[in-house]
Description:
This protein is α/β, with parallel strands linked by helices and 443 residues long. It has 14 helices and 19 strands. The strands form four sheets. A 13-stranded mixed β-sheet has the order 1-2-3-4-6-8-9-10-12-14-15-17-18, covered by helices on one side. Helix 7 runs parallel beside helix 8 and helix 8 crosses helix 9.
Amino acid sequence: MSANIEWQGDQSTYQKIYEDALAKSKSNIIPASSFERSQLSGLIQATRTSLEKFTVGSTPVLLAKALACQESLLSPIRMLPPEVLSQIFSLISGLIVLHVRAKHTGAVFPLTWVCSYWREIIFFDPSLWSSLKLDLEYDDDDSCSKVKNTADEFLLRSGTTPLCVAICSKSKSGRPPARLHGILDLLAKYASQCRELHLTLSTYKQVDHLLKQIHSHSPNAASPTGIELPILRVLDIPRFPRTPIHLPRLQTLYLTSLHADEAIDLKHLTALSIHTYTTGGRSFGVLLERFPLLEVISVKYVKRGETTISPDDSAAIRHTHLVSIGLKHLDRSFPRRFWDSIYLPELFELDVEPLSIICPSTKRRLDELKSMLIRSGCVLKRLNFEVLERAKNLVTMESDVVSLYEGITVASESSYFMNGLPFNAFFRYLYFTPVTGSTTPDE
């Protein structure tokens, strides 16, 4: 009987057909029985038949929209239970970014526009509101206040879910917005829920303010050692806090600056990235002893500080967990004896950026690094040099290119890289013969 339905009427009739179909689509009113599915199939056929009769005007547009809404009600995704939809949404929702002077971004927002059914699921799923970045690039207190209010709403939706939070405040005038402290105060309330915390702030004072607020919200606020972030695993911060802080699960640490003499007790740390490391006359071993489980380290600048590193007569330091080192800006200012008494037998990845491969002072620093690799007995699976000389000049620098790789034991020929790219046959066979270790060559 439903197959004999045929639409007849004026423009208002077709408008109502479209509005009814749109309302059901937004509210996810889907057929719950075989009879209702049969009825809907009849409506779809009637709409399709009517659409074939009209070729001009607004009527075919309305009918086409109505047909799309009606057909969508039979889509299998409409019948998925809320918990399955939440799992799907979590795979694509990603990071929510709140901008000061731009529309907020994040895949979660378009998902809420599909229908009220999806919107309700998303609003009441805390995990979809657990990754938040506050992008505060402008000296605009009013905009900061609006971002704070929005962030407050989103963090409330996150419930007790572990959070990933980032704040980026880079004032063009060098003066942070006056209301930035309000945002930091808000974050402090949720700090104990943070699994990842990334702070790109204009001044260290802002970090100190945040820590004070975290302390005030701590259950042990009366204790001088009351700051504890129990589930924090990733911390990105300009400088490690001088205030005593307990981070029992921290595994990854990003620092803008670190001095060898700073007291940091993070024996469970596995990954460390430092923009500027100041040795203070100490060798690399001081850092390794502080982080016995460290597996990956990346350093952009290494500075001597006021004291040069003296010959190290202390016991050898054998670190068996470190597997990857990244060094940028290795030049003649790089500290001598940085690798004294260091043994890294499990190291298998090395990424070095010598600012010049023809400077004698830089070569001496590279030789010290090579000596450490040789005495460690490690076999590198990836050896990459970021060579800054122009590629066309490398052809005339055969001996200099050879010297970069000579003596370093690698797993296979495919372990050699230059500027992040595998060596081509020209470099592999014309310039050097690889020193191959006992490990199985890479495929």
